[in-house]
Amino acid sequence: MDFQSEKHEIVRSQLERILASPGFARANRSSQLLRYLVERTLSGGAEAVKEYSIGTQVFDKPESFDPRIDSLVRVEATRLRNRLQAYYAAATEDDVVEIALPVGTYVPTFRSRSSAEVSESVSLESKPKIIARWRWARLGAIGVAAFALVLLGREMVGRAFLNERVARLENLQRVSIPNEVLLSPVLGPGSTNLYFASNRGGSSFRIWRQSQDGSGSQPLTPAESDAFDLDISSDGAWLAYWSSRNGGGLYQLSAAGGDELLITSQGRSPRFSPTGDRIVFWKENRVTGFGSAYWSGIKQGQHDREPQPVVNDFDDAHTPQWTRDGLVILCGTRKTNIPEMEHDLWIVDAGGAGSKSTRIKTGILPFLKKRGINPHQRALPFTPFRFWNDDLIFAGMKQGKTALYALRLSPQDWRPQSEPVLLHEGLESDDTPYVRDSKVAFVSTQSNLNIWGIPLSVEGTASGAAQRLTEDGGDEFFPAVSLDGRVLVFVAWRPPNYQLWRKNLGAGVEEELLRTDDMKYLSLNAQGSKAVFRSMAGSFPQQQQIHSLDLATRQSSLTCANCGSPTSISPDGQFILHETGSQVARLAVLHVSSGRRQEILRHPNHPVQGARFSPDGKWLVFELDKGADGTQILAAPFRGLTDIPPTSWTELTDQRSSNFGPAWGPDGTSVYFLSERAGTRDLSMQKLDGKTKRAVGEAHPIYRFSNPSLTPLTYHVRPRRYVGLSVGKGRAALTLSELSSKVGIGRLQ
């Protein structure tokens, strides 16, 4: 038996073990699908595995089967993924191969399992292609010898290219707590104590400390507010993190516990400098997603000055992290129209705003992009970069899967000096690495964004638990439901494309309407007959195009070549509200037939965003983002291509909480929105006077998202607008994040 045949036999043996297990023995469809996918892949026919062929050859669908209308294959694929994950959660030493079905594909992957090391995907080509060290437990003597020769040749080339050192992750340990989400782990000095955020014992995230063996668990932050996105000083004395306390902000706390110290009322991802005397962090523009990086000095645990900008000559500066020698690496775009200055990882000096200060464009992001790795498209919004000697340790997404990588950088100009090395890849996505000495702590996550519905009573209050409206394993967002509650449209991310789908909520039938390279900010008119969305076009700087789609004919058209992000379409389809994309967000209206545009809602100091037309098209509801003072929901009369001054605005919520994503009730006498108060996330409703649209009584929560593993995007990279709250008769639809996670700890070699 040759080397390739023996590998195939090992995979087939593992397949039979899985099919004989209790989770598959009575699951006929999942078993049939798994056997078909594995055998077609092993026989070299993976390219022919399509949704249509699966439907006709596995599930006996007729030749007229249309996957765009009938979602059976996608539903069964999701069920198969879940059953495989459940199987390997209880796997034993006899399970020598992991068979997985990655999201976004019907081609399974095969990976060896070893207690000491984690493998790369097993190559099914005629010549084995080994990238990292892995072991097959039951290879014969000939197979072992052939494998060793290939491995030796590959490693010799790799070591020469990496200056005699290949980074890899060994001695992997797992820390998990049943039914709990674990986030942002960091290690104390000596790596004896592990700190992380967890919803243990309640619905809020708290910072916890425990020994690596699981003993001595102790909460360090109060239960009344969320706390996560954690960092620890190099001497292990201080913790820094984001907390929802008092409306949200960055806080500092002694690693031994005690009182929380406010760093700043805004910001995310605080990171200590190597000397522990400064913290760097960033703030995000909720509309554009662009960032601004800041630093704050520390003296004896107190912050000795107001936060200062790290750079002021960048349009975008986010996810900053310290280098070993006290410089800062950040993702950013400089204020210029020169393509060479486009988005990349930059090396800058904190506080060096002058033209002579350090500005080094590393070329890392375009280097990774050519290799299909994207550090931005991840489930968790925390800074993914750390340093180990001259290696950049980071989390990046490739082919729909997030994994940990090491990239050797030049000590002179910070440019890549080798190919990225895959450190670890399991069934879950790995994210947010933390490095201390040679140990790495990281989070393994399983996450999905799906559309959920909350049933509403005749009075407009929640009448039951949230119900899943979409079943696919990929990410789905920007839901929009017609006023009669019968039609749902949404955007689905299926790498490398975005797809627009329509679902008949009565019949449960889904159909794909459109597929493009970019599609975001979807809106639907009241009748459910016309949709608008934004796509980016052109080279740097790109244009924000607005497209319209007739749902009956499936014909799309370019409505505006460079307007901004659409937020709503009028019931008659004649007007489109959109954000202008200016530095302080403003709202404009486009008259479709004439092409005329006019800014109609603006504030001198605060972003105005997220406007929606009322069911009769005569009123608008929108957000006013006051930063640390909260986000308000307001209403104003719509006057066509005419400015609406602030004197005409009506406040629907107070300024003591953060409210976003307003949506009209189907009769126009109520407004729904999402609200975040200390430690809670709610769907709230405000009753309105039918004529004046003024608030009647106070806004009140009608549904509480008490489970941190099912929330409206609170812990995800996606901006809040992806939630896409929409309300029709008898139902509110929105995107919810399903998240499960555990902590991994390994040693870099």
Description:
With 749 residues, the chain is mostly beta strands. It is built from 7 helices and 51 strands. The strands form 12 sheets. Strands 4, 26, 27, 28, 49, 50 and 51 form a 7-stranded antiparallel beta sheet that branches. Strands 13, 14, 15, 16 and 17 form a 5-stranded antiparallel beta sheet that branches. Helix 1 packs antiparallel against helix 3 and helix 3 (28-42) packs across helix 5. The chain is globular.
Low-confidence stretches are: 115-165
Quote the average pLDDT: 84
Strands, total number: 51
User: How much is the radius of gyration in Å?
Assistant: 26 Å
Distance between the termini: 35 Å
- Strand portion: 35-45%
Structural class: mainly beta
Report the total helices.
7
Overall geometric form: globular
Amount of helix = 10-25%
The main pleated sheet reads as:
7 strands, antiparallel
